Amino acid sequence: MPLRHEDSPIPAGFAAKASFLRTCIPMYTLVYRRVVFVASSMVRLETSTKKELEALKEHQRESFDDVISKLLALVPVGDEEGKYSDEFRAGLLEAHFEAKQGKLIPFDKVKKELGL
């Protein structure tokens, strides 16, 4: 014969507390394991870009956000004279990209154009 609530040695209100704990334990586990739910947005990538980002992951479970954040950290924020503007930082990144593509102007040609 099943125990009725009145006959149970479990204190009154325990069912509500147990329900609360069943809700809290998974949340605690998620926070403890550093799983954090954040707002996200979709970003379109070429398949080749996605493969390159995947190759830069330190471990399989590393997020693309972490990889991209590390890449952005490579663009300098400023120097001893102060902080760079966002436009200047974008220009640095674009210049680096153009240099990688071989779109460089020889120094002699620049000197000639400037009359130096």
Describe the structure.
The chain has 116 residues and is mainly alpha-helical. It has a domain at 75-116. Helices cover 53% and strands 3% of the residues. The protein is built from 5 helices and 2 strands. The chain has helices spanning 14-32, 47-56, 64-73, 86-100, 107-114, and strands at 78-79, 82-83. Strands 1-2 form a two-stranded antiparallel sheet. Strand 1 and strand 2 (82-83) form a beta hairpin. The protein starts with 13 loop residues before the first helix and ends with a helix. The mean pLDDT is 76.
Short description:
The chain is mostly helical. Helix content is 53%, strand content 3%.
Please give the share of residues in helix: 40-55%
The ordered string of helix (H) and strand (E) elements is HHHEEHH
Look at the structure and give the mean pLDDT.
Answer: 76
What can be said about the biggest beta sheet?
A: 2 strands, antiparallel
Please give the order of strands in the largest beta sheet.
1-2
Strand content: under 5%
Coarse shape: elongated
Distance between the termini: 102 Å
Spatial extent as radius of gyration: 29 Å
Q: What is the overall number of helices? A: 5
Overall structural class, as computed from helix and strand content, comes to: mainly alpha
Q: Tell me the total number of β-strands.
A: 2
Low-confidence stretches: none
Secondary structure layout plus pairing:
Elements: H1 14-32, H2 47-56, H3 64-73, E1 78-79, E2 82-83, H4 86-100, H5 107-114
Antiparallel strand pairs: 1-2
